[in-house]
């Protein structure tokens, strides 16, 4: 089969199309003929040598795919209501940049009605991540206020729409007026240009001094101190990436007085059972929103898989709004 491999750690041009053996299906797994593969920030980190795949996972990049089930564990498929020939999208720990990919049955979801393969491939990584962190870990409730750092990223556009659909108030940050407008068009109640405004001060103003209930942070570093300052009593800060650095200094006194919780997670190394539980929640609570059009995929660009390097160049410019997807002939 054809696959996009990392020939050496480095710049986007180290990605190259290569021939690889077909992956072998194990117990509890399916083989998917891949029609489209989502591109995500962890793929860029893996390519640069900063984010190795978990032990036992494919060395190929790619954490989400959409396609058709070719074969698999018959009993596991039957238990999940799946069959050979079904269109699915799946979260995987690696190997998504390939014509064929193995995925645990529990991490597969049916392609939402009316969705094409590109739209379906854009869903798993961001929807699993947002659900797990914003709704499971940070326990965002209807009527609460969520601050999203990076509202036009793949994670951001998903978090804006899900939070609004489930009854929360949303404040998003972005790095340009154009991106702020995109956040508002997606449903955010307010958007803050972090390059020209102090997001912490503006968030406090927008909440009449109360502060926000939950912050979804992909930056960390120096942002943590300002996020602690703009959290309401019993507020929750959930860190899911460290693009601004791993070290932070903040006012611990505010954490005590306001009873704040600072948490974080990475999804890729978690066990299949954990991810399968997220998939079950998504199918029950989020897939109907997608099929009703209340939450929509946001696709910025589509590249043929042979042009994966160009997709990574775009990802690293941070100019995209929404998802970048690769397609396979």
Written account of the structure:
This protein has about 325 residues and is of the alpha/beta class. It folds into two domains: about 180 residues, Medium-chain alcohol dehydrogenases, catalytic domain (Quinone Oxidoreductase, Chain A, domain 1), CATH 3.90.180.10; about 140 residues, 3-Layer(aba) Sandwich (Rossmann fold). The protein has twelve helices and 15 strands. Strands 3, 4, 5, 6, 7, 14 and 15 form a seven-stranded mixed β-sheet that branches. It has a six-stranded parallel β-sheet with strand order 10-9-8-11-12-13, with helices on both faces. Helix 9 links the parallel strand 12 and strand 13. Helix 4 packs across helix 5 and helix 4 crosses helix 10. The chain is globular and about 55 Å long. The N and C termini lie close together (about 10 Å). The mean pLDDT is about 95.
Query: If you consult CATH, what is the topology of the largest domain?
Result: Quinone Oxidoreductase, Chain A, domain 1
Total number of domains: 2
Shape, please?
globular
Largest sheet: 7 strands, mixed
- One letter per element, helices H and strands E, the order comes to EEEHEHEEEHHEHEHEHEHEHEHHEHE
The residue fraction in helices comes out at: 25-40%
CATH superfamily of the largest domain: Medium-chain alcohol dehydrogenases, catalytic domain
Q: What is the SS-derived class?
A: alpha/beta
User: What is the mean pLDDT?
Assistant: 97
CATH domain class of the largest domain: Alpha Beta
